[in-house]
Every structure is written in C-alpha cells, then in structure tokens.
Amino acid sequence: MTKNATQLAALALIALTGAASAQTVLKIGYATSKESHYGVGSTAFCDEIERGTQGRYKCQQFPSSALGGEREQIEAVQLGTQDLTNTSTGPLGNFLPEAKIFDIPFLFRDYNHARHTMDGPIGQDVLKKLQGKGLIGLAWTENGFRHMTNSKRAIVQASDAAGLKLRTMENKVHMEGYKTFGLLPTPMPFPELFTALQQGTVDGQENPIPVILSSKFSQVQKHLSLTGHVYSPAVLLLSPMVWNKLNDADKKVFVEAAAKGAAAQRKKVNDDENSGIAQLKKDGMQVVEKVDGDSFRKAVAPAYAGFAKEFGADKIAAIQAVK
Ligand code: EAX
Q: What ligand 1 atom has the least distance to the C-alpha of 32?
C-alpha cells in the first residue's frame, strides 16, 4: 500500500468505528427521587447497559415524577414517546389484568416469599405476558411492603383505620381490600399526593418506607403504622420500539442489566426498612410498630371470595404455596 492508501484505510476505519459508536440516549422515568430505591435500581441498570454495549446505549434519567404519574408513564412507554419506566404495579392491572393478583392484601408473608414468587415461574409468566400489551417487562424490581400513614390517629387495629379518607393508587384490588378495613379509598396519581396530604384533602396514604422517606411524608403526616398490609411489586418496562431494534446480544445485555438493577433496588429497600423507622421517628413521626395484623387479616378475609372469583382460587393458592 502507498502511504496515501494507508492513510485512507485508517480514515475509513475511524469513520466505521465512529458510526458503530453512535450513541442512543434512552429516557427513563420514575416516581421518586434519584436517591430513592427507584433511583438506585435505575442507575444500576443504566450503568450496566452503558458498559455492556460499550457506550452505544445510555440513559437520561427523569426522577421525581418529572414525566408524569405512573399510569401516564406506562402509556408513554407503550406509545414509544418514553423509552423506559421503573414503576409500581399500581396502575399496571389496567394494562394487564393478570398482574393485579400480586396486589391482593396479605397475599405475601414476607420479602423472601414475594421475591421468590416474582422471580419464579408465576412472576416470570406474568412478566412475559406484558409483551402482548405492547410492553417489554425486563425485570420485577421492587417498591416494598406498604404501611399506612395519617394525620388523625394511631392505627393499631383495623377498627382504628375505619372512617379515614385514604389516598390509594389507581388500583381496584387495593381499593376493594382497603374498604374491608373501613377506610374510604380515594384514588389519586402519586404526583398529587404530597399537596393533598398538606392541604388535608385526604387524611392519609399508604406506601413503603423507602417512598415515605424519599417523599418526606413526615412533613405532612404525624402517624405511621407498620401495617405491611400489601406487597407492592415494581417493574422495569421498556418500549417495544427500542426492544425491536436491539440485536440478540444487546437484548441479553438489557435483561441482565435489569436483573442487576432489581437486585440493587431491593437492597436499597432492605436498607431503608432497616434504618428508615428510626429516621422517621427523628423526623417527628409517631410510629406504631406492633400492629394487630390479625385484625386486618380477619377484616379482609371475606374479600378473598371476590379475588378467587376474579383470579382463580388455584392461582391464589399457588402463590401462597411458594416457599
Ligand atoms: O411507585 O403511587 C404510589 O403510591 C407508588 O407507591 C409510588 O408512586 C412509587
């Protein structure tokens, strides 16, 4: 090769690698702050896809509901106007009815039971079904067990909850369940919640410790009861518009990155569960740690007949049987 030809070849190579390293920036949104469990999980996922695709894919993160409520974000991911969302299953049942089974109060015994179910055949089957609804479920992440807060009184047993106006997610299964506690469920998108609590539009709300902490609900709620009345799964959703453009190797990178994100998110939930109660007490909340769980279980038991009719008694029993 002449010197010129060598230079040309080198230039061609630069042009080629330049094209190969073109970067796609994916928009990911979630409800809470960048420091919260959703932020930790999303960041772990984003770091991994950037590393695994040698920088061909990276994220731009939109924490704190900057892209809207969770229902709106799922719709946007379906449409492809948003690439990713890390969201609770609150509104997911409106897209895939089968997903609502996981929202039944007192279905899961503890975190191990819930995580084994979501990561096992039952959870993975529902995750795959999202494809039929124009959503790619990359992994079950986690929101956590939900606890009640309110501005009126300490809740020790179900009868203490009766009559309180409680904001719920836009989730029929939760609403049906909470009615049995005598609560007055008021569905509302998360971005409106802080102001609604501040202005007294509702008396209370229910959310996992990591959400109560990161959203600073201690500023607007006096009482916290560790009711743990329902497990709140979360899911990392990708738009099919992005998924369908990925080659097989990149698909594998995305799925493995999602598993790492889920692990990081769950670890943050664990950490917040361990240190969060002390923090919330310091912030001035009155905390009922010894809740009469049986009074709540007894209250909700009759609603299980309705849940069995909707989802199948065998399906509920299969989840209860997961070790
Ligand atoms: O996903 O709406 C809710 O209460 C959710 O738990 C919150 O947005 C985090």
A: 9
Question: Is the Cβ–Cβ distance between 27 and 60 less than 8 Å?
Answer: yes
Q: Classify residue 194 as exposed, middle or buried by CB count within 10 Å of its CB (0-12, 13-18, 19+).
A: middle
List, in sequence order, the alpha helices (H) in 246-312: 248-282, 293-300, 303-311
Q: Which amino acid is at 286?
A: Q
Share of the chain above pLDDT 90, in %: 93
For residue 7, report the distance from its CA to the centre of ligand 1, in Å. 57
| Residue closest by Cα to atom 3 of ligand 1 | 190
Nearest residue to 36 (alpha-carbon basis) of 232, 265, 279 = 265
Decide: 41 in ligand 1 pocket, CB within 6 A.
Answer: no
Query: Taking the model in full, what pTM does it have?
Result: 0.93
- What count of residues does the chain have? 323
Question: What number does CATH give the domain 11-320?
Answer: 3.40.190.170
Indicate if ligand 1 lies below 6 Å from the C-beta of 161. no
pLDDT tens, residue by residue, 50-73: 999 999 999 999 999 999 999 999
193 alpha carbon – ligand 1 mean position (Å)? 10
Average pLDDT of span 118-130? 98
Task: Give, in degrees to the nearest 5, the angle at Cα 217 between 259 and 155.
Answer: 100
Predicted confidence band of residue 22 (pLDDT cuts 50, 70, 90): confident
